[in-house]
Automatic annotation (TrEMBL):
Keywords: Signal. This is Phosphatidic acid phosphatase type 2/haloperoxidase domain-containing protein. CDD domains: PAP2_haloperoxidase. Transmembrane segments: none annotated. InterPro entries: PAP2/HPO_sf (IPR036938), V-haloperoxidase (IPR052559). SUPFAM superfamilies: Acid phosphatase/Vanadium-dependent haloperoxidase. Residues 442-468 are annotated as: Disordered.
């Protein structure tokens, strides 16, 4: 199914208003709280908000985005949509809980509002706005989620504030460059990208390299220097490594290396959503910390995709399959052409430099470490491509495997992976320095007191690093 273009609504269509009216009259039941109590305006103790509401709607978002784009879609669009939905949910929760700075918004909600109702409403409204073909299923999920929240004023206030949070994000992204007709016109000379076998698809979603970032000031803010020159020794090492280690058959890979390449051959954003839902549940993160974690990692991932596509569009560097098959045209005496060479993985339809997977992984892990206060992330990562799960205790190990995997898969040069990793780290640093920060005030600007952040900031040296 092809993704629908954004709907230029204010989330106020007659159908949407009717749905809100119907849902607000449902008979609702309470569920047990998942965390400790939080003070409200009259100093009575209210049940703590249930963080599973945020986790569930992250899963709903994953399902909705994957159904629209295709689970194995080779574009980075999935990161952009997850970033936008997660930002809306974070604002809906943080504006009530009062612990963290809002994302590009100042309108705080009533302290007596239900954070769960706000979170599920913000997620539902943003997903319906951008994926209207999924509205029937989304409405059913929304009805079920509201049925788990106690009826009354808190729920009504949460719904109203969640609607405002969603509407703010939708308005904020109007005219941001999504789906703009950006063309790639470079002639297929040596070193220049061209469509690759087997499908010879054109450059996919070129507009991602020019769309307005979520966190950065411009798509080229972290653009690295150029890839190695075709006649350089570094380029020859890259080509000869991927020719040997990334070939489909008869490679120098071990069985574990092949499995690693295949493990990261699917949709990385889906892998991250599942891993962080599991992490948040096992570590009993509260609703504000859960919403903040998803917003921080997903907006960082979105900007990593945008920055990667900017570099791909700017440099237009060819993929290993072209480089190996046409090595007799590169002017480098240390490379030899293998006309029938094929990579282990199918080459995605966009240029090599920089690796989007490596950039996204580094940005997500750097940001997550800063938010959680540790680079020992304890992530269980599932791969649909191999039907296996890996445990990553430390982010550095993940970055190493990601850089290696794209080479062993035959679809990236090592230089592209390392450049992507370093760009991702810079995005993570920018996210941690400018967004989602704990409130520093001793008294919040609303009646519910803000609790201090539970983790101290990490030093730059303690954050995840890229392989050498």
């Amino acid at each position: 199914m092809r993704l629908n273009r954004p709907v230029p609504s204010r989330l106020s269509r007659p159908g949407a208003r009717a749905a809100v009216g119907i849902l607000a009259t449902l008979a609702l039941v309470a569920v047990p709280a998942a965390a400790g109590p939080t003070a409200v305006a009259d100093d009575r103790r209210a049940p703590a908000a249930d963080a599973s509401a945020v986790r569930h709607w992250n899963a709903v978002a994953t399902q909705t985005i994957s159904a629209s784009l295709g689970a194995m879609h080779p574009s980075g669009q999935v990161a952009l949509w997850h970033g936008l939905v997660s930002a809306a949910v974070h604002n809906a929760v943080a504006g009530i809980e009062g612990r963290y700075a809002l994302y590009k918004w100042k309108a705080r909600g009533p302290a007596t509002a239900s954070p769960e109702a706000a979170a599920v409403t913000a997620a539902h409204r943003t997903l319906v706005a951008w994926f209207p073909a999924s509205q029937t299923r989304l409405d059913a999920e929304y009805t079920a989620s509201l049925a788990r929240i106690p009826d009354g004023a808190a729920e009504r206030q949460g719904i109203a504030y969640g609607e405002r949070a969603a509407e703010h994000i939708v308005r904020l992204r109007e005219g941001d460059g999504r789906f703009e007709p950006v063309e790639y016109t470079a002639a297929p000379e040596p070193g220049v990208w061209r469509p690759t076998p087997p499908a010879h698809q054109p450059y996919l979603d070129v507009w991602l390299g020019t769309v307005r970032p979520l966190l950065l000031t411009s798509p080229d803010q972290v653009r690295p220097g150029p890839p190695p020159a075709l006649t350089s020794a570094r380029y020859a090492r890259d080509v000869n490594e991927v020719k040997t280690m990334g070939v489909k058959g008869g490679s120098g890979r071990t069985a574990h290396q092949t499995e690693t390449a295949l493990f990261f051959g699917g949709n990385l954003l889906v892998q991250f959503q599942t891993a962080f839902r599991d992490h948040a549940a096992r570590h009993r993160l509260g609703i504000a910390d859960t919403a903040r974690l998803f917003a921080a990692v997903n907006t960082s991932a979105a900007d990593a995709v945008i920055a990667s596509w900017d570099s791909k569009l700017h440099y237009g560097f060819w993929r290993p399959i072209s480089a190996v098959q046409l090595a007799d045209t590169d002017g480098n005496p240390a490379t030899d052409a293998v006309p029938g060479w094929q990579p282990l993985l199918v080459t995605p339809p966009h240029p090599d430099y920089v690796s989007g997977h490596a950039a996204v992984a580094a940005a997500v892990l750097r940001t997550a470490a800063g938010v959680l206060g540790t680079a020992r992330l304890d992530l269980y990562v599932r791969s649909e491509a191999t039907s296996t799960t890996r445990h990553y205790a430390h982010a550095d190990r993940f970055n190493q495997d990601m850089v290696d995997a794209r080479v062993w898969g035959g679809i990236h040069f090592r230089s592209a992976d390392l450049a992507g990793c370093h760009a991702g780290n810079r995005i993570g640093d920018w996210a941690l320095g400018h967004y989602f920060q704990p409130l520093r005030t001793s008294g919040p600007p609303m009646s519910r007191p803000a609790r201090p952040a539970h983790t101290p900031p990490l030093s730059r040296a303690a954050l995840p690093k890229c392989p050498r």
